Hints:
This protein is mainly beta. It has a single domain (31-350), classed as Single-stranded right-handed beta-helix, Pectin lyase-like (Pectate Lyase C-like, 3 Solenoid). The protein is 12% helix and 31% strand. It has five helices and 26 strands. Strands 1, 2, 4, 5, 7, 8, 10, 11, 13, 15, 17, 20, 23 and 26 form a 14-stranded parallel beta sheet that branches. It has a ten-stranded mixed beta sheet with strand order 3-6-9-12-14-16-18-21-24-25. The radius of gyration is 19 Å and the shape is globular. This is Pectate lyase domain-containing protein.
Amino acid sequence: MLRNLKFVTAILAIISGTVAQNAFEGAIGFGAVSTGGNGGTVVTVTNLEDSGAGSFRDAVSQSNRIINFAVAGYIVLKSPVSLSSHITINGQSAPSPGIGVMAGEISASGKNNIVIRNFRMRQGNLDKQTGKSAFNMGESSNIILDHCSVAYGQWDSIDAVKAVNITVSNSIIAFPIGQQFGAHIEGGPATLYGNLWVSAHNRQPLTKSNTQYINNIVYNYQAAYTTAETSGYFSHDILNNYFITGPSTTNPSNYYYQMNEKQSVYAHGNYADTKNDGVLAGALENKVGSAVVLDAAWDPTSVGLAKLTALEAYTAVLASAGASPRDEVDAFAVSTVKTLGKSGVIYTNQASTGLSNGGYGTL
């Protein structure tokens, strides 16, 4: 009987995201169950070539690896890079000014147990495969992105259809082009914590999953938290987020979009500033359309994660989200948000930002 009780307790812990933090110290949410490349071989990326010995593509081509970097700069992709299962990508190991990829998709499709930290993924229109996303984790499991920077996604910035146990935390998801979508999540459960979402048409995120959405900042949206009137029944903990309109916002009330009666929502401590006057002074906005209103969080860990108020989250996220040290693209994203409604564009081409290196910024 005791053995069975321990087994049930362990399963419940996995479901609720309360298991030990395997990904790294401080990892949170459902993706924290990922073991990444723990215990595997340390492999160092020694050049910025698209392929070959010492390249990033070669380093991620086999499982059970911890990927470090001895070089800094952009890796210009000639084709999508497919990650292997059971790997950890330590972008923070790169020398200043950091490491990233541009002009192609990073794919974890069909893989499991992947940890990516302090890494830049900038697809942009140099990628001629317009049906690709900046980061794709479709049909994957146990994935965590932390302090990453995702920009210029064509299909989606982040695609997570049929993805199980994922966390996107402390990251910047900015300036999607093409479809101009932030993130598409189906499957779950998913945790989205402490992220900065900048200038997207929609899907910040689109979530057809049981989801924790905590301490996010969304700026210059046309539609922010979206369920797309799905026929599925899902639960959503939406806590202490700040929605801020910008010049591209056509309907300020679309901070919650297409929330139907099949969705169960615990919304608490969320603010929206819809004045576009350069001053942050929002009002509480916790009405979630026709969704079923929950009296308590659907997941018992959500309230504990929501340590910051929406205002505190604004300060913290703008100070520390994204890959470190901040590069030209992320600095531009943050400075855009700080105008608090005065500036912001939903782009169709990264070059339109006016940043160096054709809009990709220089690493």
